[in-house]
Amino acid sequence: MMTGFTPLAATAGGALIGLASVLLMATLGRVMGATGILAGVFAPSGPRDLDWRLALLAGMMTAPFLWLAATGAMPVIDVPVSRASMVIGGLLVGIGVTFGSGCTSGHGVCGMARLSPRSITATAIFMAFTALTVFVTRHLIGA
Amino acid sequence: MTRLIATYAIGLIFGAGIVLSGMANPAKVLNFFDFAGTWDPSLLLVMVTALAVTFAGYRLVLRRPGPMFETGFALPSGTRIDRPLVLGSATFGVGWGLSGFCPGGLLPVISTFRGEVLWFTAAMLAGIAIARLARRSLTLGLAQAT
Hints:
Largest sheet of chain B: none
Strand content of chain B: under 5%
Number of helices of chain A: 6
Distance between the termini of chain A: 14 Å
Order of helices and strands of chain B: HHHHHH
Low-confidence stretches of chain A: none
Largest interface: A-B, 111 and 117 residues
Number of domains of chain B: 1
Distance between the termini of chain B: 47 Å
Structural class of chain B: mainly alpha
Shape of chain A: globular
Shape of chain B: globular
Low-confidence stretches of chain B: none
Radius of gyration of chain B: 19 Å
Radius of gyration of chain A: 17 Å
Oligomer: heterodimer
Helix content of chain B: 55-70%
Number of helices of chain B: 6
């Protein structure tokens, strides 16, 4: 399935992701890492550690409806893989980000912005393994 | 209350960025990684721009004595490149490559209640639970061994 190059939307979207990361640090002093924010919901250190996570998640989940109001349609979510790939992929993502202490937002954006050696290493590894997995599933197995 | 309203607004900005950028669209994400096929370079711009804005913004923010609503910055302090970091990141990469969803791309669109989104979400939460249990028993095992 082809998708078109969307440089303006990609740049503007990336700027908003960066802006949100900066604002979360400026207000709550927290890293905008999806993994850490979500994991903390299930093991908060107290009520003051839970409320902001829920508010942040509620804000995130309002975005598709803001999109609907602005464009008249829900965001495009095309899933070009099988349900088995989604379920196995989901399991591996959950296990991986827990042991790896972060994902694209936490390591790839916030950690890299702090020049953290752990985040730079993690990002290089997961980007390489993602590309490798796509190559194997699309060109070796799926070809 | 101001603290929670501000946090909600920050979540909305993040979610809007994710949706606008295409990070919540597995077809687009997987095409970015498909250099040998239907390559779509959009995500390179997403990551570079997000990183550049955060890099510049953090430099301004972290110079301040502390955040607006808390007493200090909660920054990850670990520096050791250990086995969990390396193996966990590799595992995450395989999962991202199979599905096209990373946690940040997923969270804002859970509210669409799309079937594939919910399947992925359930599996990811199960993965997080499994990993937490495994990590706890590993730690317990080490504690008993010493």
